[in-house]
Amino acid sequence: MKLAVVGGGSTYTPELIDGFARMCATLPITELVLIDPDAHRLELVGGLARRIFARQAHPGRITTTADLDAGVDGADAVLLQLRVGGQAAREQDETWPLECGCVGQETTGAGGLAKALRTVPVVLDIAERVRRASPDAWIIDFTNPVGIVTRALLAAGHKAVGLCNVAIGLQRKFAKLLDVRPADVHLEHVGLNHLTWETGVRIGGPDGADVLPKLLAEHGETVAADLRLPRALLDRLGVIPSYYLRYFYAHDEVVAELRTKPSRAAEVAAMEKRLLEMYADPALDEKPELLAKRGGAFYSEAAVDLAAALLGGGGSPVQVVNTLNRGTLPFLPDDAVVEVQARVGREGAAPLPVAPLDPLYAGLIANVTAYEDLALRAALHGGRERVFAALLAHPLIGQYAYADRLTDRLIAHNREHLTWA
Amino acid sequence: MKLAVVGGGSTYTPELIDGFARMCATLPITELVLIDPDAHRLELVGGLARRIFARQAHPGRITTTADLDAGVDGADAVLLQLRVGGQAAREQDETWPLECGCVGQETTGAGGLAKALRTVPVVLDIAERVRRASPDAWIIDFTNPVGIVTRALLAAGHKAVGLCNVAIGLQRKFAKLLDVRPADVHLEHVGLNHLTWETGVRIGGPDGADVLPKLLAEHGETVAADLRLPRALLDRLGVIPSYYLRYFYAHDEVVAELRTKPSRAAEVAAMEKRLLEMYADPALDEKPELLAKRGGAFYSEAAVDLAAALLGGGGSPVQVVNTLNRGTLPFLPDDAVVEVQARVGREGAAPLPVAPLDPLYAGLIANVTAYEDLALRAALHGGRERVFAALLAHPLIGQYAYADRLTDRLIAHNREHLTWA
Amino acid sequence: MKLAVVGGGSTYTPELIDGFARMCATLPITELVLIDPDAHRLELVGGLARRIFARQAHPGRITTTADLDAGVDGADAVLLQLRVGGQAAREQDETWPLECGCVGQETTGAGGLAKALRTVPVVLDIAERVRRASPDAWIIDFTNPVGIVTRALLAAGHKAVGLCNVAIGLQRKFAKLLDVRPADVHLEHVGLNHLTWETGVRIGGPDGADVLPKLLAEHGETVAADLRLPRALLDRLGVIPSYYLRYFYAHDEVVAELRTKPSRAAEVAAMEKRLLEMYADPALDEKPELLAKRGGAFYSEAAVDLAAALLGGGGSPVQVVNTLNRGTLPFLPDDAVVEVQARVGREGAAPLPVAPLDPLYAGLIANVTAYEDLALRAALHGGRERVFAALLAHPLIGQYAYADRLTDRLIAHNREHLTWA
Amino acid sequence: MKLAVVGGGSTYTPELIDGFARMCATLPITELVLIDPDAHRLELVGGLARRIFARQAHPGRITTTADLDAGVDGADAVLLQLRVGGQAAREQDETWPLECGCVGQETTGAGGLAKALRTVPVVLDIAERVRRASPDAWIIDFTNPVGIVTRALLAAGHKAVGLCNVAIGLQRKFAKLLDVRPADVHLEHVGLNHLTWETGVRIGGPDGADVLPKLLAEHGETVAADLRLPRALLDRLGVIPSYYLRYFYAHDEVVAELRTKPSRAAEVAAMEKRLLEMYADPALDEKPELLAKRGGAFYSEAAVDLAAALLGGGGSPVQVVNTLNRGTLPFLPDDAVVEVQARVGREGAAPLPVAPLDPLYAGLIANVTAYEDLALRAALHGGRERVFAALLAHPLIGQYAYADRLTDRLIAHNREHLTWA
User: Fold this and answer.
1) pLDDT digits over B169-194, tens only?
2) What is the pTM of this model?
3) How far is C195 from chain A (nearest CA, A)?
4) What class, spelled out in words, does domain A2-164+264-301 have in CATH?
5) Which whole-number Å values give the CA distances from B207 to A388, B84, B169, B184, in the listed order?
6) A232–chain C Cβ distance below 8 A for any pair
7) What is the gyration radius of the CA atoms in chain C, in angstroms?
8) What residue spans define the domains of chain A?
9) I need a surface site. Which of A361, A404, C197, C318 has the fewest CB within 10 A?
């Protein structure tokens, strides 16, 4: 079994490698290729990756290459975890939207659109090359904005599934709070990538007892603190929104914060610098603790689980993934990409049925799906007017004058990544 | 043919009477009852109404009463045009939402919800009494927020159609600009009450040539100025949003304006005072010019046309009304109320098919429909939490802290109208 | 020695009585008159006051009256602690300025101006009657906004000193943190009422060692938390701003808070209700703990100390008071009222010299003094334009459109208290 | 008589040359040196300058050089009109402050501070070299922010006067409206550079009749439109604020505008490109009309008048200049720089007395002067904390969290111009 990781030079990679090593039985990789144009990073990360495998006696071989076509050749699955423009582009995404009083963030709002525009063409090019080199390979997309990127991949006919660590993170968190095994926590997880709510928390499986009320009653404070949302909001909704809903439910509060502190990108850039220094240490043969603060917790577990299921070697039969709606949320188009529990196997992902959603969530989901549709059009076909339309459609923007100016600013800050600009 | 007007003491009424008089052939009313609890207004308005009929030699009889049950007894159609709480309540609707930086307006946002909460129970009670007194009567609702009120009426099984003057106003405006007869202008009018776009302007009927591009090219400046939206927005969208979209597309600009000038309610209250003084003049036997500034232009034409069609006596076969969606906009629930072109006759209104809508409009419509659903629940069942949910769902609010505070403020300012508060 | 307390029915009063009882040696009152138009409150508060004196064996007599002239007759000192319009007016002061995105607060900004306009004429009338009844009496003003009210009193030639509990509160707080006796903490306290900075904290007296750097280094976190300001701000300034500077240094943060929670007035009103219930209990003969949350901590100590000094019976020779500038801050007019350390005795208060102030503070003080000058003119002479000028001059407003609308709102909400409106 | 113009390659220069040519009798220049590091601009501008002189038969010689020391050698007066960082830096000044909701402008607020920090060290270095090369030369500073730059020059003991075209522009405007000769219009012009009010408009001289009320009554609409301020504001104040007061009186409105349109810097850059193309045309021998839109109207008249007076060759005896306060505004430090009418001659500028100012203006002037003091300290001595203090002191910022973030942003965007950063 051969796996390729595009963006393998990411500082995230040791998290992934650690998972591959620990879960060798679930996903018996024989060859792992780390692909990255950044030779320096690749060397540092590749070295640590081999030491982690060695320490844990994983029999698989790890290779590194800057040559995408060679790297993905013959792969059974390809993980995408790239960041077009790096942390510098992210820093921009987090900054210029503030000029209009709009949230600056790399997966939603104007910054999220910028990232989508930079990323979609690159990912589609990679996917096309994967298809040529290895027609049966599954593409697992961890690259943000996962919803739009996955929609782009599926619309182009690729064998792709979108992956996010929000659901697995909540599952692990709740398991701990409830003192049960993670695998026993079945989330009723519904929405779009980074726009989800847990509407039920069932023990043992989809038909188990719903302990969400109990969870909120006993651990509401802890859960709310993690999400940085008021506990009262959770109690009043009776469901648990994802952390990213904070950009909606507390938009102005977030903007006020962003105006008054350094960017997350700057924090992450500093952390990455420190991580790469650590990775260079030949004595290091496990993922350092600092990596936990980098984000992406449980990403490796989720990725192993998903790859194993897709490749038929095991993995949980039901997982939270990003895949085609096809009627799951009846108020959305069939070709929208939703993030829900799905049955996953060699044939791909098939969403489990979802109970009717309260309008309080359905309305926002429909609105953001419309934005994602327009965002994808802008990413695929370019043009100032398509960018403008996507921004005007976004519920966190929605105003003409802001959409107009933000269009200018987005283009000015991303010109080198936009072939049409 | 007997018509009853609930809220007949409104200063709007002479506009309506003038239309009845001019269009006597279309709608041959024999008895018109003006119903209002305010005896003083009723006397002034009723007097002028009779003088207008007399001057124009209308044979119909006009009576006035404060007794609703008696007034609607035997009516063929009942027009609802009431304002629970009067201009004083409206002034509140336009003010306290500003405390949270949200638009203060009587048909959308937090102010619109307040009006819905005050109005729906009153209208449902009236409709119930109409049903008892005159089971076959059609109820024509001109009372705002028309979308939610009509939804309430239809959900309760009433024979009701919602009416707004936005579409007829645009039709007349465009006819003038294009130098054609109003009846020849067929609007592709789509959305929800006060959230509509003209996506086509056809000459001669639904299959006529679409002159919207020409209209925008030649008269874009005039149209935009009327809507108080930038002309560039119209050109870029290629469709014409209703005036009320300004609360969305230019929200912060509107808030800045509201913060810096007296309320519209105060203006209208002053105008009403002046109008009532005029109405008291026994020499006045036509609607005064000032009434045109009161809003509601062409309301009488629309009302006559609709009543005539519903009662089978004529009227345009296709009209813009508020009625059940039933698949017209496939992304909305069947029981949502949409504002579209519909075939209108004795059996009621049946929407014409609507071409697929751009996500730029569909997303917002879906979101506001979700709000309207929650608003109706709050209006029907009351309770602080239902109010909160509706406010949180509204795209112009959407934030937890604002929804929370606005809930308090809404209740504090409307306590006397909310039985549950 | 006879003291009169105007506004004696305030729920604050037991705090004051408790101080009089404890510090009987410093201020040997023989007669204490509580004056209030609210007979019910006066009865409850007066009863508790007598029980507190009795329990502590204070020999003085306590009487109550609604008759101001009789009450102040022959008084040696008159304390003013009234609230024109009560908590209801305060609730308004805290609310309507938010409509323009401006802080709503009862001593600064537009709300503070409203309170000044309501209060100054009432206080001047009282002072005039005190002068007639008891020409030599000292007037001690604790009524907010203390700076403007004191300026009004002094400009009218009254024997008045303004009193605030901010300085004494900090002195007690610092003494505790530094583990020294309060009397040994000499603050270099400078500015205007509710716009002050501690630029030095000296031990033993004006010439003692300045421990402010040490205080910040060791207890900066505690001090900052009390002020609800960031510790980093204190460290960077190297001085300690008063709690009220938060309305300036964190204006938008405060507005965001106010938009998202109930008013302070509502909290206080609820507390007052509870306090009055407690006061009605004939078994209660000491100030209840709840009173500490009412605000006004150490007010009684400050008042006793000031009255004792003014009446020549003791008291600290140097105290923080509000009095005429007369060159103390050379960049302000002589007739401005400043809040600084002053030598206090039978002749009144004479400010100690103040070291040159950093422009960072001087600029703001000059600006707010200009506002206070205009505010006093508006309070004395009335008129829409004077209100407008004061609002435009206030650094927390300063914009034409807001000043214009807030003028309307201030007048609308305070019409019954403004003879000229 | 030799004059040197530092920044002589500016697109402004032909305006200046045109004035020198027209007013040859007042200021009989024999040698004019244009000094600029940009050889290309210098060639284009120098060529046009010579053609303008030739066309108007001016006998003076025009030379160009990049060598400052040589250029100013032996000069009788040196004009400073430079822009450190060019339009690119200006574009930044106008943009990043918006991230915190603060006005982005190159002479006030955070952008103005950035310009001061970039400019003051460069100007002081130039002035020092002028002093060495030509100890008796007058330095006329037209470089913004003129107030702070002039204060820096005077504090360093240079023979300097600050010049702005606001006053002369208003004088010419009013003269036209009143149909009198410009020289007959004496403005009572008071405040700081870009923070001034005309408190009187006298005909014939300082003792002439004040026609300001008449001017407002008859031409208020025109004047207000020019200033982009509401006419009602002018009427209510009874004085005429400068255009730059709009950043204060309509701050949020300006921010809303800036958020919704391209920067002024971008406009000017486009205009400069076009102007330079015109200047390259060897047939052009007068200033093109487009130059009027570049700003700086009447700058040449003002500069000629000032230079003539300083060099003793004529010029108006009383002119509006930026010079030391020395008690003119008694509430400001003596070493503040004010912008007022002054008697100008070989000895420099001596302010005329100014009538007592209304607190409405004095308070703001005092506050901004304090900011300018701190801004100058930051410009002279550098350091993050000095930048922070100046930002916190600015009345358009004033909040801790914004001052903190804007400090970061200012430094990040101007690092190459700040030796200490």
Assistant:
1) 999 999 999 999 999 999 999 999 99
2) 0.91
3) 24
4) alpha beta
5) 31, 42, 21, 11
6) no
7) 20
8) 2-164+264-301, 359-417
9) C318
